[in-house]
């Protein structure tokens, strides 16, 4: 390393013309005016044994630079100009292409179908309460609020990424008195430095800062996608549990009526006692099945409250009157082509940001192979504050010159660091391609699942229609006294079981629909206007049971991420 600042100080050998001198607050006896009071306490220069370091004034084995023998200051400036010209020819490594081979169209979308998106995907359920809950969750979820704060922090740091490569000014003071001193100085001054950030260093640092912002934005979008999908999943599971509870109560009523009819037949000696025992066992089994949907309903409600930033669910959610069973969405508002998913899936965007960050780190490591150039200056005023001439003795020292840091020999450390960053960039590229393949796989698998459950649901609907028709005919025969009620009770039991099967398949189709939109990154991008609209469309801001504001309401306006 070579560090230079131009000023001749008495006590430095004349032949050493390229140096940097630090003059501390030296304690000396008074000298006549016109002679310097400062004692050289530190020399900063180039030593083959000690490398880049500050040396005491007594250490003088400096190597005299040939180009500094005659005109030291102009030689330093010439060296700076030469290195600056070379820096203009050195650019940071380019970001590699992120092109990935993806199919031109969806492979399994023909059966599932693709419908144009008229709004957010969850509106396909046709449930206003679901729309309201998702709006509240997007405004009040603590995970989303955390991601917003991290994005804001990344943006603030990115705005100051170029600060190290702009002129900096610092003030300093020193007032030290030795025990045996007869004279001491109060020292104050200013130091100015400006690193030029050449050889692609400044661009690479900015690239890393931009990657940090992009990664934080992808994490925020991922949190929004996940919260919207999980709210829809929890809500539909809760409603389906309420629907299954209603159907299981019908099954209990059917088994109870079967037992009553068997008791009548047994008294008429038309049925054996074993049949009555079997009917009693079937009744208890039907009652035991009521516990499963009750547990699922309360668990889904608690999970829904957590997603909305609440400590406990709303009691109105658990009332059976609030249950609704709209038709399951059969079509998905997918991106027009798989390549469009690269712009909507958050984990792919996050992988892309990591590639950008790795490219920036490689650029910084590449710049470390070249000299670091800058300008530096200092202004120091020293005033005597004790002794016989405390008020008259003062000194002013000014220095200005180029700062040059040249890596000479480090046993291959910088080169190894550059190669390691290049390997990390390759790893980030591979991770990006893997993320693209995983996204395509999840989306195609969800399309297959959605299509198969759609076909299964249609078949179960046809079977249920046939059973309902047969059950109605049986009840009509009983009303006309052409058949006994016991003969038609089996049809009622089969109808209830068919309705339970259809309810389970409907839930599976709904969850497949939700998983598909989560796989393609389905959620509106965050904007301040969108957040306001989502909050206003709901029943006011989400609050906890004690009425306190949620995380989104507590965020200050300055902390809201900019779109």
UniProtKB/TrEMBL annotation:
<dbReference type="GO" id="GO:0015562">
    <property type="term" value="F:efflux transmembrane transporter activity"/>
</dbReference>
<feature type="compositionally biased region" description="Low complexity">
    <location>
        <begin position="531"/>
        <end position="544"/>
    </location>
</feature>
<protein>
    <submittedName>
        <fullName>Putative efflux pump outer membrane protein TtgC</fullName>
    </submittedName>
</protein>
<feature type="coiled-coil region">
    <location>
        <begin position="443"/>
        <end position="470"/>
    </location>
</feature>
<dbReference type="InterPro" id="IPR003423">
    <property type="entry name" value="OMP_efflux"/>
</dbReference>
<dbReference type="InterPro" id="IPR010131">
    <property type="entry name" value="MdtP/NodT-like"/>
</dbReference>
<feature type="region of interest" description="Disordered">
    <location>
        <begin position="531"/>
        <end position="563"/>
    </location>
</feature>
<dbReference type="Pfam" id="PF02321">
    <property type="entry name" value="OEP"/>
</dbReference>
<keyword id="KW-0175">Coiled coil</keyword>
<feature type="coiled-coil region">
    <location>
        <begin position="231"/>
        <end position="258"/>
    </location>
</feature>
<comment type="similarity">
    <text>Belongs to the outer membrane factor (OMF) (TC 1.B.17) family.</text>
</comment>
């Amino acid at each position: 390393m070579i560090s230079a600042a131009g000023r001749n100080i008495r006590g430095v050998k004349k032949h050493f013309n390229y140096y940097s001198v630090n003059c501390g607050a030296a304690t000396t006896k008074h000298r006549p005016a016109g002679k310097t009071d400062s004692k050289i306490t530190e020399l900063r220069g180039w030593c083959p044994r000690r490398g880049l370091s500050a040396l005491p004034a007594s250490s003088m084995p400096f190597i005299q630079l040939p180009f500094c023998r005659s005109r030291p200051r102009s030689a330093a400036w010439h060296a700076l100009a030469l290195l600056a010209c070379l820096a203009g020819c050195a650019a940071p490594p380019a970001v590699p292409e992120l092109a990935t081979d993806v199919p031109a169209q969806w492979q399994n979308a023909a059966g599932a179908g693709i419908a144009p998106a008229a709004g957010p995907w969850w509106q396909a359920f046709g449930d206003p309460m679901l729309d309201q809950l998702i709006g509240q969750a997007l405004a009040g979820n603590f995970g989303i609020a955390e991601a917003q704060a991290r994005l804001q922090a990344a943006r603030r740091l990115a705005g100051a990424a170029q600060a190290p490569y702009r002129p900096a000014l610092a003030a300093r003071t020193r007032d030290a008195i030795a025990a045996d001193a007869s004279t001491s100085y109060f020292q104050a001054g200013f130091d100015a430095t400006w690193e030029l950030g050449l050889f692609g260093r400044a661009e690479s640092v900015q690239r890393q800062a931009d990657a940090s912002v992009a990664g934080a934005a992808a994490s925020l979008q991922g949190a929004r996608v996940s919260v919207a999908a999980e709210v829809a999943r929890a809500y539909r599971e809760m409603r389906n549990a309420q629907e299954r509870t209603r159907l299981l109560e019908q099954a209990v009523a059917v088994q109870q009526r079967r037992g009553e009819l068997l008791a009548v037949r047994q008294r008429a000696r038309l049925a054996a006692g074993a049949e009555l025992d079997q009917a009693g066992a079937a009744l208890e089994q039907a009652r035991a099945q009521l516990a499963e949907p009750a547990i699922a309903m309360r668990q889904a409600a608690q999970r829904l409250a957590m997603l909305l930033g609440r400590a406990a669910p709303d009691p109105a959610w658990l009332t059976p009157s609030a249950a609704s069973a709209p038709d399951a969405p059969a079509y998905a508002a997918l991106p027009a082509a798989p390549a469009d998913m690269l712009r909507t899936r958050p984990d792919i965007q996050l992988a892309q940001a990591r590639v950008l960050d790795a490219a920036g780190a490689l650029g910084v490591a590449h710049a470390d192979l070249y000299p670091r150039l800058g300008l530096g200056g200092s202004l120091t005023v020293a005033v005597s504050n004790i002794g016989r001439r405390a008020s008259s003795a003062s000194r002013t020292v000014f220095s200005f010159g180029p700062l040059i840091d040249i890596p000479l020999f480090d046993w291959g450390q910088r080169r190894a660091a550059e190669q390691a960053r290049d390997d990390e960039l390759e790893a980030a590229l591979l991770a990006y391609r893997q993320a693209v393949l995983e996204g395509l796989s999840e989306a195609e698998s969800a399309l297959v699942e959605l299509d198969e459950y759609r076909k299964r649901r249609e078949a179960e609907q046809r079977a249920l229609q046939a059973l309902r028709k047969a059950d109605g005919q049986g009840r009509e025969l009983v009303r006309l006294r052409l058949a006994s009620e016991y003969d038609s009770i089996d049809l009622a039991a089969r109808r209830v079981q068919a309705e339970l099967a259809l309810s389970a398949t409907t839930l599976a189709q709904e969850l497949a629909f939700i998983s598909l939109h989560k796989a393609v990154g389905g959620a509106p991008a965050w904007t301040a206007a969108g957040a306001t609209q989502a909050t206003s469309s709901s029943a006011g801001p989400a609050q906890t049971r004690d009425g306190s504001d949620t995380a989104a309401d507590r965020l200050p306006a300055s902390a809201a991420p900019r779109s």
